[in-house]
Specification:
Length: 315
């Protein structure tokens, strides 16, 4: 009887979890801004590729809990109120002291759109630290914990249940239906969401801008994460960190689901500040953000630890 009772409780929990895990639209409180989140189911997949580069090996099984991922790359429409406090105040009905206290990026000394467009265009060239602080601003605005995807979450969501080189198969010629890249982008970003989504409703996973993950890049991490659950390589140094998806300036081979790329100090080469900015990569107009929300929100202590990790100085 006790066993049946416990089993019943477990089934109820699973049913409640399933009911809660649906696509939704997030409103940013006090503004007219919204963004869409897609429900990504829990599951197992084969991470990596035998047909790619050496750092995509070994192909290994990874298990992941359910989460949500933003349907689109984060646009300037959403990022700009975080970037400019005065802009946020002029476009909001409420800016609390807590929101006001969030650390903002230093004002960029360049046009960070690089002349490629702003409304509905992806936000560009922020550092990983800047991307995490943007997530903190969203948390204060919404009460919902948003973060960067882990490398495993990014590839799992990109594949959307497939094991081919791209989520639509292996035919590279079809890439133009799903991505802005070197062959069709005219050397610039394009408004988000114009290309076909993958099977899980995510647009622009390939191309447009490459996207930050939370992971440190190492060549041997795959060998140590076989059958791991929710693996992540937590960064303890500034470079290199993992970016995924390729960008508007990349060839098709860099847009594959398993393809890995890394951050580089050269992205700050023209930054005149000493030490160099924690916030911007003035030579990386090809980097952007996509958001993740775990199904189960972490504790307040875990959230604070994620958002309040001090930046590593870049000399």
């Amino acid at each position: 009887m006790k066993y049946k009772f416990l089993l019943g409780l477990v089934l109820i929990c699973f049913q409640l979890e399933a009911q809660q895990h649906k696509n939704y639209q997030q409103k940013i409180n006090g503004t007219k801004l919204t963004f869409d989140m897609q429900a990504i189911p829990a599951g197992e997949f084969s991470m990596g590729s035998k047909n790619g580069n050496a750092d995509e090996l070994p192909v290994h099984k990874v298990k992941l809990d359910a989460f949500w991922m933003s349907k689109l790359e984060v646009t300037w429409d959403i990022f700009e109120p975080f970037l400019y406090k005065d802009y946020e105040k002029s476009n909001s009905t409420n800016v609390s002291a807590e929101i006001d206290a969030v650390t903002r990026p230093t004002k960029p000394y360049l046009d960070m759109t690089f002349g490629m467009g702003k409304q509905n265009y992806p936000a560009l060239a922020m550092t990983q630290y800047s991307a995490i602080q943007f997530c903190k601003w969203l948390y204060v605005r919404t009460g919902v914990f948003y973060r960067l995807p882990t490398e495993a979450e990014w590839e799992y969501a990109c594949r959307a249940g497939t094991d081919t080189e791209f989520s639509f198969g292996n035919d590279e010629k079809r890439l133009k239906e799903f991505a802005w890249y070197k062959d069709n982008s005219e050397k610039k970003t394009q408004p988000v969401g114009l290309k076909k989504p993958n099977a899980w409703g995510l647009h622009d996973m390939y191309g447009n801008v490459a996207e930050w993950t939370y992971d440190q890049y190492t060549t041997d991490f795959y060998a140590s994460s076989e059958n791991a659950k929710n693996p992540v390589a937590i960064a303890d140094k500034l470079y290199p960190l993992v970016v995924r998806g390729g960008s508007y300036e990349d060839d098709a081979k860099y847009l594959r689901s398993a393809a890995r790329a890394t951050s580089d100090p050269a992205w700050k080469q023209i930054d005149p500040q000493i030490p160099k900015s924690n916030w911007w990569f003035p030579e990386a107009p090809f980097i952007g953000i996509r958001l993740v929300r775990p199904l189960v929100q972490p504790t307040k202590e875990q959230i604070d630890a994620y958002y309040n990790k001090p930046p590593i100085k870049d000399f």
